[in-house]
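Hi U.,

Before I forget, here's the chain from the pilot set. I'm dumping it here mostly so it's searchable later in email.
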Amino acid sequence: MADMSLIKQSANALVARLRSAEITPHDLLDALEARISDVDGKVNALPTLCFDRARAYADDLLKKPVGERGLLAGMPVPIKDLADVAGVRSTQGSLIFADNIPDVSDLLVSHLEAEGGIVYAKSNTPEFGAGANTFNEVFGATLNPWNTSRSAAGSSGGAAVALATGTAWLAHGSDMGGSLRNPASFNNVCGMRPSPGRVATSRASKVDGNLGLEGPMARNVEDLALLFDAMCGDEPGDPVSKPRPQTSFLDQARSGWKPKRVAFSRDLGITPVDPEVADIVEAAARRFEDAGVIVEVAHPDLSEAHECFHVLRALSFAIGMKPLLDAHRDKLKPEVIWNIEQGLALTAEDVARAEHQRAAMFHRGLEFFNTYDLLLCPATIVSPYPVENRYVEECNGTTFDNYVEWLGIVYAITNICAPALSIPAGFTAEDLPVGIQIVGRPGCDGQVLAGGKLLQDILGHHTRLPIDPRS
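Structure:
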């Protein structure tokens, strides 16, 4: 009989119990399997399960002394379905790979397993992670548990919904244009895009690329920091990966560090934002004042963010996916085709201008963080929208030109290589979640986590999880 009380406990509490041998990984897997049976059919967060593989891995892990079971010590973790897991159906949300069962895991999966992470599921994602609404032709749509008629956002939508519904304590995700931060905002969980190089991953095309990054998700900041510690570290297979810091990210999150001065912006000067969302986030940001922190209205100059990001994103699609367009055009969704063709049409002059724009914004961002310890703004410009809408077409009177443009408030931060964390900020009049994005100087991931924990503890919204899906 599964112990369902485990579902509501924190990941850090469960790792402590694993290390004391009070529970085993099998206890956690039993509880997850029962919880998935109860709720996942209502939200479709974890369409691929691999509990036999997970239990075999748990058996092998238990043969080792407790001190040799890694940072996670047997904690289960779902992997976003963009990363290969050896022996497990890994589709990338695409009909092209609908029956793909790889022989070799992605480097990030091998790294997590070496730290005692146990893979038990693949979380749903849009086709090739393209778009901030989690649906695909292989598994269908993932639904928001706060209101199952609404989008879970994306592209790490399955991961966020699993956390919110108690079918995961920790979850892997990835982020190019907000794919960790958007679903965190829509589901009342935490998601972090780290500084480049923190999390090693397999490199299939652009060896030194840092537009898309892997990162952690969890129900609270301390659990996220725990997973981040297990994910980070250098690997020979990723030439831009960095060593672990001397002080763990969990210790940095718990350090009590407090910013002296933070900046708040409703829109970063570049995008419309739904007024209700902006009001909720501003009220949350002002709560830093409860801790004696100075809060001022300011943001760096990010005026080139849209042109820069769209060019570099299109280039990444062209580099990574042209062979798929040539061989499988009929199996690609129109947004992916559009992005690849945009990339193929770029000139060297287009790319050079975008790279210069990114460098200029990066340096202006560094200068900005000489004055402010953190930058606060909305993590999404709207609250969860109807799931049948492929993307947000309009906000506050502005109509967007394409399926990516509504994500400017997060991809502007991608451009400047800054670590960014989304934590719960509050709820709309419809009781739908809204997240606040907390941004720090590049490389200062620990300060972002410490600031995030401080504000999270003041606000207290994370305590509402996990929830049962509601229609």
